[in-house]
Amino acid sequence: MRPGLVLAVGPNGIGKTNLLEALHVGTQGFSPRTRNDLQLIRFGETATRVAVRGRRGTVPLEVELVVEAGAGKRAKANGAPLRATEQLRSETATLVFTPDRLGVVKGAPAARRAYFDRSIGRLSPARAQLATDYGAAVSQRNASLRRVASGHSSRDALAPWTAQVAELGTELVAARRETLQLLGPHFAERASELGLPEGELRYDGAPPSVAALDERLDRDLERGVTGLGPHLDDVVIASGTRELRGYGSQGEQRLAVLALLLAEAELIVERGGVAPLLLLDDVLSELDPDRRRILAARVARVGQALITATDAAMLPADPDQLLEVSAGVVREAA
After folding, report:
1. Residue 7 Cα distances to 55, 176, 286, angstroms
2. Does residue 190 sit in helix, strand or coil?
3. Distance CA 168, CA 166 (A)
4. Residues 162/214, Cβ–Cβ less than 8 Å
5. Predicted confidence (pLDDT) per residue in 26-60, tens digit
6. In this structure, are residues 332 and 321 in contact, taking their beta carbons and an 8 Å threshold?
């Protein structure tokens, strides 16, 4: 792929999404489609390999990821093995839109928490592990709750985990709120430009405290889970007074997801980061001509992008590179 806007065209079902998925797997270490890595391996094969070569700013970058049945995943960056495939995310920021990405807006709170926790990592790499560390503390506290409830441990053993959940939970809530404050103005601008007025991001939750966790200890012991904290919070994505999860049309939900991607891409560049890679799958088919022009203009300003479509005429701009996808083959158009 050349720098700039790349358009991949071909009939439905021919493999355009596979190309986009491969780029996401190679730069982020996981698929936007499935969490079952074995589904990335072609039928009849025992392994798959994705290799991506490009530049991170002015620095050459080559990454490779191998998924092997029975052996898990392993990755390299510039020839050096990585301790974990998640480290690929620190090399390249990749933002993706696929039709099922609407779950970020219309799905359960867990989908929004996961999305914005990844945003924290892209915008503040030093806090990339915060959500994972908090989740581990909650898991340890839950295990301790069950040991106490079964009589195999004392309530005193819960205290260290309660303190850790409160501390990490407070940090995570602060990080989420800060991220939403940063994204909010960009989101509102891009949403308005796409025809979604008064776009707003709001955090629905409060930082946990040791006192609050202790107050509900009997209920937590009865259920065996921690019933308070940011693992249960939500982010409200709204247009004016309407929460789009319950009161937005599918078209509005689609526009909200696009506005989120564009907002974060702009913010990454604004904060001095390397422009992200945008992967937009079948995004043009559901947009009217005016919104296609707006999207094409915005995407061209925020770094490299790959857009898939069934017909080149759907993009109201000349791409920097046009790829034609046929069964198992990607060719540059003459």
Report:
1. 19, 34, 17
2. helix
3. 6
4. yes
5. 999 999 888 889 899 999 999 999 999 988 888 89
6. yes
- State the CB neighbour count (10 A cutoff) for residue 264: 27
* Domain architecture of the chain: domains with CATH: 1-93+274-334 (3.40.50.300), 102-273 (1.20.1050.90)
**CB proximity list for 261: less than 8 A, separation 6 or greater:** 95, 96, 97, 278, 280
Q: Which two tokens stand for residue 90?
A: 């620190």
* Alpha helices (H) in the chain, listed in sequence order: 16-28, 88-91, 103-106, 109-123, 130-149, 159-193, 210-215, 217-223, 244-247, 250-270, 289-299
Total residues found in the chain within this entry: 334
CB atoms within 10 A of CB 209: 15
Q: Which two tokens stand for residue 322?
A: 């046009």
Which residues are 307's β-sheet partners? Answer: 7, 280
For residues 40 and 44, give the distance between their C-alpha atoms in angstroms, rounded to a whole number: 12
pLDDT of the residue at 2: 66
In this predicted structure, the answer to whether residue 69 has a pLDDT above a threshold of 70 is yes
189 three-state secondary structure: helix
CA distance 294 to 125: 30
- Best CA proximity match to 9, nearest among 314, 320, 308: 308
List the one residue out of 242, 260, 322, 282 whose CA is nearest residue 1. 322
C-alpha pair distances (Å), 212 with each of 173, 207, 217, 218:
15, 10, 9, 12
pLDDT digits 0-9 by tens, 93-121: 999 999 889 999 999 999 999 999 999 99
Q: What pTM was estimated for this model as a whole?
A: 0.91
C-alpha dihedral (265, 268, 274, 280), degrees to nearest 10: -20
Give the residue among 112, 272, 114, 136 at the shortest CA–CA distance from 201: 112
